[in-house]
Give the backbone structure.
Amino acid sequence: MRIFKLLISPRFIGFKNSLKKSQSNTKIKILTLTGTGILFWLVLFFFTFRVLTYFSSQEMIGDILARHLLAMVFLTFFSMLIFSHIITALSNLYLSQDLELCYSTPASLAELFLSRSFYTVIDSSWMLLVFGLPVMIAYGVVYSAGLNYYLSLIYVSFPLIIISASLGIMMIMILVRFFPAQRARDIMMFLSIILIILLYLLFRFLRPERLVNPDAFMSIAQYLGALKAPDSPYLPSHWATDLLWARLTMYSGSQILNYLLLWSTAFAMVVIDIWLAGLIYSEGFSRAQEAKRRSRAGKRILEKIVSVITRPLGPDTTSLIAKDIRTFFRDNSQWSQLLLLGALVVVYLYNFSVLPLERSPIKSIYLQNALSFLNIGLAGFVISALSARFIFPAVSSEGQAFWIILSSPLSPRRFLWSKFFAYLLPMIILAEVLIIYTNYLLKVTAFMMALSSVTIFFLVFGIVALGVGLGAVYPNFRHENIAQVATSFGGLVYMISSSVFIALVIILESGPVYTILSSHFRGEPITYLQWIWIVGSFSLVILLIILAIQRPMAAGLKALNSYEG
Amino acid sequence: MITFENITKIYSGIKAVDNLNLHIEQGTIFGFIGPNGAGKTTTIKMMAGVLRPTKGRIYINGLDIAKEPSKVKKIIGFIPDRPFLYEKLSGIEFLRFKAGIYGVTGDSLREKILYLLNLFELSDWADELIESYSHGMKQRLIIASAMIHEPRVIIVDEPMVGLDPRGAKLVKELFKEWAGEGSTVFMSTHTLALAQEICHQIAIVDNGRIVASGTSEDLKKQAGVEGDLEKTFLKITGGVATK
C-alpha cells in the first residue's frame, strides 16, 4: 500500500506545484476555463430541466419518456466511460513516458498495475462525472427527489465507473497481448471512430425529433415501439437506471438486488483484472517498447498528393507543406478524424434535405432565403470547429522539432503564411461545397446563392487566419497528443473569437439583405438612405474580414518572433 | 568569423550568460566547456538564432544575427544535444525537407542526400520513419542534415551524445576535415578528452562567464597543473580535484 501511494503521488504533487507556482496569466486561464465550464454546466442543467418539465406536462407518456431518457443517458455514460477508459488505459498502462522509471522500481506488478489503473480511472471519469451531474440534478429537481436520491447517485456512479474502467482496461490488456501498443492504439482509434460515425448516422437517420411529436405516428403502438431503448437487464447501466428511477419516483420496493448486482460486479471485475494483469500485463508492456516499422500502404498516393499540391511553390514553402501533409496522413489519430468530418458533412447536408419547408406557415421563398442566410453562419461554425481541431494546432504540430524551423533561414513570417495558405484551399473547397449544395437543396434565389458563396469564401480567410494566428499566440510544442492543443485555453479563445467574427459578419449582412429581398418581392425600389446603409454595412463586413486576417496573423508573428525555445 | 560582443542572457532574473566576449577565427575548432548550468547551451542557442540575447551582439561572418537572421542561418549548421525530429518523416524525407528549407535544390541534391546517408551509415534506414530510429541514429541524421547546405559555421551542442564509438570517430574526423577546409566548428562538450584532442581553442565557462580560454596548453599553464584537461577543468571550476 505504501508503494502504491508513492506511485500515485507524483501526479498529485505535480498538480499542487503547478497551482502553487502558477503565474497570473495561468490563473486567468484557469478562471476562464472554470467560467466556461460553469456556463456549459448551467446550460446543460437548464436544457435537461426544460426537457424534463416538458415531459412531465405530457400525461400518460411523460414518465415513460423521462424513464426512457434516463436509460439512454446511463447507457451513453456507460459506453462513453468504457471508451474513455480504453483510450486512457492504453496511454497510462503502456505508453506513458514515466513507465520505464516505474518498471525499474522494486514495486510489485500488482502495485504498478493498480497505480496505473488509478490514474486511468481519474483521467477518464472526472469530466463525465462533472458534466453528468447537471443532468442528474435536473432529474432530482423536476421529480422533487429526497436526499436518498442524491446519496444513491454516489452509490450508483462509483461501481458503474469501476465496472466500466475494469472492462476498458481488460479490453486493452487483451488487445495489447496480440498487437504492439502503438498498433493497438491505431486499431482502437480507427474502430472507435467508425463506431461513433455509425452511431451518429444511425441516431440522425432515426430522426429522434419525431418522438416529441406523437401525431407523426400512425398509432400509439407504433410510437411506443419507436421508444424502445437498446436496453437490457444484463447491463450495469440498466441496474443503475432502475435504482435511480425508484429513488426518483419514491418507489417503495426493495432495490437491494440492483445494489448487489452493481457492487458485486464491480468487485468481481477488479479481481479479474488483477488476475489478468498478472498473466499478460508485463508481457504487453514489453511488446509496447518494440519499435514500429513503417507501413508502406498508401505511400505512392501520398507522394502524388504532395507533389501536386506543392508544385507551384518555392522550395522552402514546398518542403514545409510537404512535411505537414506527410505527417498528417501518417498519424492515424489525425487523418482518421477526416472520417468524422465526412460524417459531419453528410449529416449536415441530410438535415437540409429533410427540412419540411412545404409545411411551414411562413411564405416559403422568405424562409428558404432566411435559411440560406443562417446557413452561412452554420457552415462558418462547422469550418471553425474543424479549424479548431486541425488549423489551430498547426503551429504547435511542429512539436519539439520546432528548433529546426527556428534555426533555419525560413523567416517566421514565411513560416506562418505557409501554414495559412496550406489550410486555406481545402477549407474554401469544403465551405463552398457545403454552402452551394445546401442552397441548391433550399432552391434559393441566384442573389442569395451568390451572396452566400462570396461571404463564406471571405469568411474562411478570416477563420483560417484566426486559427493559424492564435495557434501561434498560444503554442504548445510539448504536447503528448496534438488533439490536446485544440482543447487548451488558446483553443477556447479561438472558438470564441471565430464565433464572434462569424456572428458579426452575419449581423452586419442580415439587415441589408432583408431590405434587398423585401424590396425585390414587394416590387418597391430601395431608398437612397437604405442604399447608404447597405453600402455601409457591407463596407464594415469587408473591414472586419481584413481585420480578422491581419490582426491574428500579426499577433501570431509577434509571438513567434519573441518565442524562445 | 564568430564574434560575441558583451552577450548577456537573463532568464526570469537569473543571468545564464554574463557579458560574454569572444572572437573565433575561421577554420578553428572551438571547444566550449563548463559544468552543468554554466550557460553553454544558452550561448549555443543564441548563436543558432533560437534564443535572443538580452544584451549584446553576435556576428557570424560579419553579419549580425539579430539584424539579418535568415542570411546568418543560411551559413550555419546547428546540431542540438537532444535529437527532436519530425518522427513521421523518413530519414530521406527529412533530409529533403532540410534541403528545401535551406533553399538547396538542383540535380545534385539526390546524390548529396545519398552520400550523406551512406556516410552516416543510414542508407538501410533511409525509407524508415524516424520514430523507429534509435537515439544514436537520430543524432547521426541530425548531423547529416546539418551538412546538407554545406555550412561555413557548425554549431554543435554535445556532439557525442548517443553515438557509438564508430559514429564518434566519424564525427571527430569530419570536424577536423571541415576545419581544414575553412569551416569553423563551435562545440560545447562534457567530453574533455575530445576537446583536448581536436579543439584548437577552448574556453571554460562557469556561471555564465568565461573563466579561462586559449589552447589546451595555455589552459594548463593558467591553472598551473600538469596532465590532462580534466585536472585543469576541475581546478578552474572548483571541482573535486581541488579538495
About this structure: The mean pLDDT of chain A is 83.
